[in-house]
# Entry
Amino acid sequence: MLRYVLVVAAGLLLLSCSKSKPENNLFSDETLLRIADFQDRRFSDSLLQFFDHKVAAYRRAAALAYGSLQDTSAVEALGRLLYDLDSSVQKAAAFALGQTGGSKAFSLLSKANLPYAEFQEALGKTASKNVAGNVIENPWALYRLTLRGLAEPMHITYAIGFLDLANSDDTRLAAAHFFNRCPIAIDEAENDLLRCAENDSSVFVRMAVVQALRKIKSKPVLQKLKQIIEHDGDYRIRVNAVRAMQSFPFDETSTTLFNALADENINVAIAASEVAVQVAKPQACAPLVEKARQLTHWRVRANLFDAALSATNHNELAEEIVQMVRLSENPYEKAALITALRHTPANYMFVGEQMLTASTPVIRSSAASSLIGMNKHKLFEKSMQSRFLELYQKALRGNDAAVIGTIATALVDPVLNYKNVISDYQFLYEAKQKLSLPKDNEALQPLERAIAYFEGRENPIEVKNEFNHPIDWTLVKTIPSRQQAIIKTPKGDIVIQLLVEEAPGSVANFVHLSSTGYFNGKNFHRVVPNFVIQGGCNRGDGWGSEDYSIRSEFSTRKYKEGSVGMASAGKDTEGTQWFITHSPTPHLDGRYTIFAEVVSGMEVVHRIEVGDEIVSVELIQQ
# Structure
């Protein structure tokens, strides 16, 4: 009996020890760490030496690294890895060649003719127009072609076949997104797309197909979209159907759109109000205003006011909106209402004042965008140009990087004709002196374009972050391979699993920021229905960053529902902002770092709205 107790006790002790000791990540292997560090530092020559290593895992890691480096000088060497004896190395090389692109990469891929999906997709990323017709065997290859504007009529026929229910969900999903992004007419696929919208077993296939239906302006399609908006059980499919209505005459869609404003899911109502902004006619002004006054949700209401002002000049409504801006205590509501005023140039002084003096960044940046909208509006009078220029110059002499970057876009617009008005553009150089890299990368890009425009140069100075903020490998080694984090919000908790082995720099950055409480109290500043929720901005408007940047870490992982990615202003400009996807977004694959995935709490993600707080982000102790 005593022996039995001792055995059980020993077993429990071993079990408790095994539970308390987290699983190490692969960077306990110093060679893999060196490869990852070379990738982060963009040391291309140092990575090449691993292409001949006897260990396949090292060859694979080095090849994958070029998916982020995208160094054209390594294309030949990557081509040799297509003949590696290890299939994982071949797939990694194909991925890297696809990421790098170019005719040489396509030639090497074509000669290798590998039987892998990664290979076919890489062909779609690299094929030129004169050979695009030969890329037909894989639905994701077709999708990559159409993203690059290279779809041909023959591809429509193949994509229709890929929609067949006998194919896998992944195959049908690729075909659905092909039609959603296809730049040529897809009318011949009408019956097949309608069938998928009605009967496909995958909600993700259906939502992509429904959005693709906007390209076919027939009565059966319009009827199907109306049925979906009224009856479909998944709000994301209803959102896409609402957006597709934008392609049809407002007279035929207005009743459905107005009904959608009362949808039980606020994302559908927001989408309907956004469509109204794009399609509203003058006769809809009164109903839009009446509906806006009935509704309580600030974002829907602001969009409807925006739609009403876009449909007709309404001075009294504009004054009402000005008063609402003054009275609101919600900075995001203020920003949305100021955006609506872009249709009323007569209110430029009020909007300009908000741009220059508001205490909240999101109000200042929204006011700057609204002012440019006024400048482009048909009601803008030429006599106003000097006064707008005065406001622009004041903005550029200020200290708000987002406002500087936004206003710079107006100065380079040839339609606005500021090049013929401004004789002394010294203020542009003064504005540049206030900005620095890497923090102000996003604002410097349009400012450099403005400087080049006024100097008469065709090409602006490239805005590129130099290497800074190396990966903290000591921290990385302490992060278990299956480490999870919990994002606490007033609407519930979101649990994500960090992908430290695929994106060590991004994960280390996220872990460090979380441990210092950086995200606590910040807001989700961007929510696009059935696309993303985004947070981590220190300004609360999407323009925020810190005095460092990290590098992009692209992998073969795909964006699906609940993928957590790093926001950026271009390759290697990531910092503190991140987003979570509502559904698959394949156009982001290989372009935005995926560093985590949601493992629980997607229902919370779907409920998050602009302005909702990130209460805290904490690691879950293992």
